[in-house]
Design a protein that fits this description.
The protein is mainly β. It is built from eight helices and 41 strands.
């Protein structure tokens, strides 16, 4: 699921995808009164235009203004042909895939908009999971699975499309060196090494994560960065400045099941400039979060530190029957055995890491993270997949949206105590131990508008001085698992002083803003050269 202000009314809207033929994707327009209205069909991005036989089914979507006309456009990635929809600005979208150059069959679970060459036009990176020669509705072979549990490289090829302008894209994957075939499930883009160019970070199933460093927009280099020998089952990539050091740290979800497998999630602190690598520091509740899927960083209690929301659970079926033992037998076989799907035991009605709760991990700085999921009221046991954060109700609080496999969507409204002058506002005891109940905390939000850069300002890097620290965030072109956050940036302040806010626009322009009023959304337009 993904968040965007589709109609430019200042309120975030939500887009959910469905992976079944004949099913409609949903575009929930924010009605500004706490409710949403599904407008997908009338907008042309719901039933009838997607999830059709011969075309494939939707897996997720990302928003970005690829033609800089002031309206957010939509890319739906699929197990099938991806589809690009141009936002006409009148509540309707036009399918422009055919003329865009993007009509290439892929089995994709992720995509990210970013301007890799900083020419002011959003480029597109689409990940591959299963090979692109596989059509699940017309299989010609059952040899479709990974050839290794630890270092598989026979997945679908990731593709990079350069935006040529005028609605046309060109495949430049091979010339730039980013065609990984390591079963990528998620990607995120940011400038990890502070050279001014956006890099790519990949979470890969059946193998190590990958970091592709961008060299002046002309080529990418796969760097070890402490990642090459650490093989797990990467599901999602979330970016956050964990300790307010002014760096992009990385959280990658993996799999843990007591008695069978403990991979543990990864929390990697960015020391690229100092040590040339990331340091893995995940322990306790951060590492052990079950079969984890989508995750996002965000300051859920406005205290100035970024917290984590993690969605969990794979297949919830018959709770008395587990597929883990059957899967462990095939996992112990040779690669030529488990690469063939016909050798896998049928799952039937068994569960596989089902009925798992999500995690709400509050950041206590050097004291680490604490799980407050029960106090926060996050009680569902659905099979979580995508997670996105947005200030849905324009209150200065980050709400959480979760897309679930074969289950209803969930919106967790943030009811942080002390966040509103109203004494009647419901309390959320997740704030215990960090400010207490009823303590007023402060915030600031930024909506960036590019001029020389892409208008969505995707890739803009913002560093806010909060008390003694510096928190860095990047405008999101897609992150997590099959997700995209609101591109408005939210900084919690607690009761600390807000100092300078430095914006490094994708064009390279650096802008310093002083004296911003707190507890307010600020719209900032990129200055001329």
């Amino acid at each position: 699921m993904s968040v965007a202000d589709v109609n430019n009314d200042g309120w975030p809207d939500l887009y959910f995808t469905s992976s079944r033929f004949g099913a409609s994707n949903a575009l929930y327009i924010n009605q500004k009164d706490g409710t949403f209205r599904d407008a997908a069909a009338e907008a042309g991005i719901g039933g009838g235009t997607l999830n059709r036989a011969g075309e494939g089914v939707s897996m997720g979507a990302v928003w970005g203004d690829y033609d800089n006309d002031g309206f957010e456009d939509l890319l739906v990635y699929k197990w099938g042909y991806p589809q690009l929809f141009h936002n006409l600005g009148n509540g309707h979208f036009e399918d422009v895939t055919a003329q865009s150059g993007l009509r290439t069959w892929m089995n994709s679970n992720g995509a990210v908009w970013f301007d890799f060459d900083r020419d002011g036009l959003l480029d597109l990176y689409i990940t591959g999971y299963f090979r692109s020669d596989i059509d699940f509705w017309h299989l010609t072979t059952t040899r479709i699975m990974q050839q290794s549990w630890d270092f598989a490289s026979n997945g679908g090829k990731n593709l990079l499309f350069k935006n040529l302008g005028n609605g046309h894209f060109k495949d430049v994957t091979d010339s730039l060196g980013v065609g990984s075939t390591r079963w990528t499930l998620a990607a995120a883009a940011a400038d990890f090494n502070d050279d001014g160019w956006p890099d790519l970070y990949l979470a890969n199933d059946y193998g190590p994560e990958e970091l592709f460093l961008n060299h002046d927009g002309k080529r990418f280099e796969l760097t070890r960065a402490g990642l090459a020998d650490d093989s797990k089952s990467g599901m999602a990539v979330a970016l956050g400045d964990v300790y307010n050091r002014g760096e992009h740290d990385v959280f990658v979800t993996n799999i843990s099941e007591k008695g069978f497998l403990f991979q543990g999630n990864n929390l990697r602190l960015n020391f690229l400039k100092e040590l040339g690598k990331f340091n893995e520091v995940a322990t306790g509740v951060v590492a052990d979060a079950g079969w984890a899927w989508g995750a996002q960083f965000g300051d859920l209690n406005n205290d100035g530190l970024l917290d984590l929301f993690v969605a969990n659970g794979f297949i919830s079926a018959d709770s008395t029957r587990s597929y883990w033992y059957a899967m462990s037998k095939i996992a112990g076989a040779q690669g030529n055995i488990f690469e063939d799907a016909k050798n896998w035991p049928p799952i039937g009605t068994a569960s596989l890491s089902g009925y798992e709760r999500s995690r709400v991990l509050l950041n206590r700085g050097q004291a680490g993270f604490v799980d407050v999921v029960e106090e926060a009221g996050v009680t569902d046991l659905l099979d979580g997949r995508g997670v996105a954060l947005a200030d849905l109700f324009n209150r200065g609080l980050l709400d959480v949206v979760v897309a679930n496999e074969k289950g209803r969507a969930l919106v967790y409204k943030n009811e942080l105590p002390g966040s509103s002058p109203s004494p009647e506002e419901p309390a959320l005891s997740a704030a215990k131990g960090r400010g207490g109940q009823g303590v007023r905390t402060h915030w600031i939000e930024l909506e960036l508008v590019g001029t020389r850069s892409n208008r969505s300002a995707i890739g803009a890097e913002v560093t806010a001085e909060i008390g003694p620290g510096r928190q860095r965030q990047v405008v999101d072109g897609g992150s997590g698992f099959c997700s995209q956050n609101d591109r408005r940036l939210h900084f919690g302040l607690g009761n600390q002083r807000l100092g300078r806010v430095t914006i490094r626009w994708p064009s390279g322009t650096e802008q310093v803003v002083n004296g911003l009023t707190i507890d307010q959304l600020h719209v900032i337009t990129e200055p001329p050269r």
